C-alpha cells in the first residue's frame, strides 16, 4: 500500500517519488517557493531547484521525470538496476527517467535545474489521441542532449517563474508540445505522427500572445493584432484558432479577466480603475462580463478572496 507524506502540504503539486512505500517529494527542500501553487498545465508538475552536493537515497519514480540542467558543470553519479556510472554534465544536459525506475543519485557539486513530472495517464491519453497502436514506453537516459526538449522545458520554466503571463492556454500548448515531442522522438517505438496542417508556429503564437498581453489596457481589435503579426485579419484569426482552439477575442477576454482578478486581489483600486486598466471602456460592461464569466461581481469576488 502506498502512503502519502501527510506533512507535505500541496504534495499533488510536487514532483514525488516512492521511498519506503511512502510518496514523498523527490527533493526535500523547495527552492522555488511558488511551485506548490496551482499550476496551469494538466498532468504536469514543474519545479525549479538549486541542488547541493549530496546523495538522494534509493527511490522509485511513479511517473515520468525529466531534469533540465540550467547551471553547474560538476559530475553526478547514478545507480540503477545493478548498473553504476558517473556522468559529465553541463547546462542544457537532460535526464529522462521513465516511470517504474528505481535509482539512487549522488550530486558531486551544486547545480540549478528544472525538474518536471508527467502523469502516466496524461501521456497515454495524448498518445491514443495521436493514433498510438501500442503501449507507450519512453526511453530513459542520464545525460541526453535534445535541442527541442531543452527549448520546450526552458520556455516552461520561464513561464512558471513569471507566473504564466501568457495564461493557461499558452501553458497548455507548451505542455502538449513537450509530451508530443517525447512520444514522437523518445518512445521505444517512435511514432510517425501526422504533421499538423495550418496554425501558427509556437514562436509566432507566443509573439501574438505577448502583443495581446502587453496591450490589455488598450482598445485593441483583431485588425491591430493581425497587423502587428504581419498578417491579414482573417488569416490571423484562422491561424490562431487552428493553433489554440480559441479565437483571438476569447484569449483576449481570458487575459483581461485574469489581469482583473490579479488587480482585485493585490490592490485596493476601485472597480472602475480596474475596468480601465484591463481594457473595458465602460465599468458596467466590465461588471457584467466579470459576473457572467466568474459567477460573482468584482466586489464580491474581491471580498471573498481577500478575506
TrEMBL record:
Keywords: DNA-binding, Transcription, Transcription regulation. PROSITE patterns: HTH_ARAC_FAMILY_1, HTH_ARAC_FAMILY_2. It comes from the Bacteria. Signal peptide: none annotated. Gene3D superfamilies: Homeodomain-like. Residues 206-304 form the HTH araC/xylS-type domain. Coiled coil: none annotated. One of its GO terms (molecular function) is DNA-binding transcription factor activity. This is Transcriptional regulator, AraC family.
Amino acid at each position: 500500500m502506498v502512503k502519502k507524506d501527510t506533512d507535505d502540504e500541496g504534495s499533488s503539486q510536487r514532483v514525488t517519488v516512492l521511498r519506503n512505500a511512502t510518496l514523498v517529494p523527490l527533493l526535500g527542500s523547495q527552492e522555488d517557493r511558488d511551485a506548490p501553487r496551482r499550476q496551469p498545465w494538466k498532468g504536469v508538475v514543474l519545479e525549479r531547484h538549486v541542488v547541493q552536493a549530496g546523495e538522494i537515497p534509493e527511490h522509485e519514480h511513479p511517473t515520468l521525470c525529466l531534469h533540465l540542467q540550467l547551471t553547474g558543470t560538476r559530475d553526478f553519479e547514478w545507480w540503477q538496476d545493478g548498473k553504476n556510472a558517473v556522468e559529465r554534465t553541463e547546462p542544457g544536459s537532460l535526464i529522462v527517467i521513465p516511470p517504474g525506475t528505481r535509482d539512487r543519485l549522488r550530486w558531486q557539486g551544486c547545480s540549478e535545474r528544472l525538474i518536471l513530472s508527467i502523469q502516466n495517464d496524461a501521456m497515454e491519453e495524448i498518445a491514443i489521441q495521436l493514433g498510438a497502436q501500442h503501449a507507450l514506453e519512453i526511453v530513459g537516459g542520464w545525460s541526453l542532449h535534445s535541442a527541442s526538449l531543452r527549448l520546450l522545458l526552458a520556455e516552461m520554466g520561464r513561464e512558471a517563474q513569471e507566473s504564466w503571463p501568457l495564461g493557461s492556454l499558452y501553458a497548455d500548448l507548451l505542455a502538449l508540445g513537450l509530451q508530443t515531442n517525447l512520444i514522437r522522438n523518445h518512445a521505444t517505438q517512435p511514432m510517425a505522427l501526422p504533421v499538423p496542417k495550418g496554425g501558427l508556429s509556437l514562436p509566432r503564437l507566443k509573439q501574438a500572445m505577448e502583443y495581446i498581453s502587453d496591450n490589455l489596457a488598450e482598445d485593441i481589435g483583431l485588425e491591430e493584432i493581425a497587423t502587428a503579426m504581419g498578417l491579414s485579419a482573417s488569416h490571423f484569426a484562422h491561424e490562431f484558432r487552428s493553433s489554440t482552439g480559441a479565437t483571438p477575442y476569447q484569449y483576449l477576454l481570458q487575459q483581461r479577466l485574469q489581469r482583473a482578478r490579479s488587480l482585485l486581489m493585490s490592490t485596493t483600486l476601485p472597480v472602475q480603475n480596474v475596468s480601465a486598466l484591463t481594457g473595458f471602456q465602460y465599468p458596467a460592461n466590465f461588471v457584467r462580463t466579470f459576473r457572467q464569466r466568474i459567477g460573482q461581481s468584482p466586489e464580491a469576488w474581491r471580498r471573498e478572496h481577500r478575506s
